[in-house]
Batch of 2 targets.
Target 1
Amino acid sequence: MTATPHGPLTGVRVVELAGIGPGPYAAMVLADLGADVVRVDRPTGAGLGIDPAHDITNRNKRSVTVDLKSERGPGTVLDLVERADILIEGLRPGVAERLGVGPDACLARNPALVYGRMTGWGQDGPLAQRAGHDIGYIAITGVLGMIGAPDQPPAIPANLVGDYAGGSLYLVIGVLAALQHARTPGGAGQVVDAAIVDGTVHLSSMIHGMLAAGAWQDRRGANLLDGGCPFYGVYETADGGHMAVGALEPRFYAEFTALLGIADQAPEQGDMARWGELRELVAARFKTRTREEWTEVFAASDACTAPVLSLREAPTHPHLAARGTFTEHAGIVQPAPAPRFSATPGSVRRPPALPGAHTAEVADDWGLPQLADPPATGP
């Protein structure tokens, strides 16, 4: 079957062993870019506690159901692996091996396979076998401790920094780099160990450089980019909304103070001794108008000031609407695929894959009649 071009990864086949969080999101990114992603679901169904029809991390994928604990299960997955370019799994270290679908078994069937492993702590180290979640992973990296007000506990950035930025996106980078290597003359498949702790630390590279140079204090709320600076922060408006200010450069700061109406009162931008005074001045001024009113004031400027929108409000922002940053598919408003490609654009082609819904289709497309007849579920 010839694949219809729908992204730069058209023709790449991916097997995803069902999990939750960063593994499914990484597979979704690959699927958005055109890869043919087959998710191997358990007979017990999805692991995330929401209706699978709304789990958009499973969009653009197809699902088959395989019981890896059954006699036929591991062999069925290895049959898929033999025809795949990439496998993604997010099991605790050693579990895939015990199930018969670890790297050795998979690479024996397909030496060119890229075997992507997604974990929080990594495949080795003292914590490798411990349970964990995003908050714990980013806690030990020093990143959680940087976020929030100095007189409050660290602020929790949902699970975006660890699971998805430090985890999923590093796994995507890793498996695509390894795929490139596997396809070069003399190249071969390999294992990609993507640990959330590793990726999260890597994200903080610039901060570590600033720390070494003495340009960053090792405490939150005391630095240029963590809320310590009065012209890089968030302020409440008269209606309880908030405006985000990022007027770092002198000319942007000048425009910001002019539009805010404090140009004749504001201290010099670099006068750190008066930053407390400046913060109070900015805060008091923002409290005089609503978020909508301030949005209008700054809308056509280079003052680097924007309204803080909610998740439901974001799709209506004029800029995001004009770019199509959000899209609606199967009745769900959701982020559109990113990034964008001039010649091979990605798209949302399928709604979230329901567990086992595509067994017959995949069996036909991948040349695996045994996948569908008899069913590969149960012993």
Note: Residues 256 and 303 are 5 Å apart (CA to CA).
Target 2
Amino acid sequence: MSDAPSAPALPAAARAWHLVRRPEGWPVPEDFALREIPLSAPAEGSVLVRNLHFSVDPYMRGRMNDAKSYVPPYRLDQPMDGGAVGEVVASAAEGFAVGDTVLHPLGWRDYAEVPAAQATKVDPSLAPLSAYLGVLGMVGLTAYAGLLEVGSFKPGDTVFVSGAAGAVGSQVGQIARLEGAARVIGSAGSAEKVRQLTEEYGFDAAFNYKDGPVAEQLKKAAPEGIDLYFDNVGGEHLEAALSSFNVFGRAVICGMISVYNATEPTPAPRNLTQIIGKRLRLQGLLVSDHKALQPQFVQEVSAWIRSGELTYREQVYQGVENGVEAFLGMLRGENSGKALVTLD
């Protein structure tokens, strides 16, 4: 008789968050429902993954609207999805074994059947697994590609980052500093986050946008103007950046979280004519356009993490049942660093 341990029994169902109605303005808990979905052995070419962490991100708010965009909207009464990392507990796919850890796009649930083509093995010895959803994942690549490729960063640039205490913004500022920026300035929404920017992330200056007009605070922080703006917020922040830009300034438009939940049209910046005289460049950023940078990004950023030159924070919510709370808290700006849900 064999003494080999038997495979653990799998649950008959997974728990998955569903969008049950489309939010009007700010999402509320009643827009979502945590439901059970059947679970069975994986089909040929797929693996069954026990999720250990899943991500909540600002872009997900746009997917809750029934509108054509760069990524399809969530379907009502269907499981939601997003970045996740977990452990393979059953495999019917060549190249994947029980115990492998993988990154995949079927988050918002505790177990997921993932086609092998959508699963990427990750090495837990290089960094904590949660880092593959943040500093070494899509978030980190967004910061890296946005600053260096889309923003055409040059040593000596003065860089302004809005939403700078968030997962993307905090990494943008640190990379700019490590790559030789003359000055790095960030905005955030609380005194504690402003402290983090200067004391933990090495920003040269930071301000709380709630303390007064953004344009006035930015001009005080960057009296000689800015060369590159990394925009996570839009609205008043973008208008302020246009006023502070030096000639040939560049703006990387990564997100506009200030308008995601608006129910009425929001005014565009009132100083767009400055784009002409200053010969400015404003360019949108989608991380999916920059996958070719992934190997270079992981090599360079993981070295900075190991050396302690680049640090990161995570806002961790425990348990799949707190997925919506994590998402809503992130939208409200309650997170410092990457917001994610950990499943024990």
Note: DSSP finds nine helices and 15 strands in the chain.
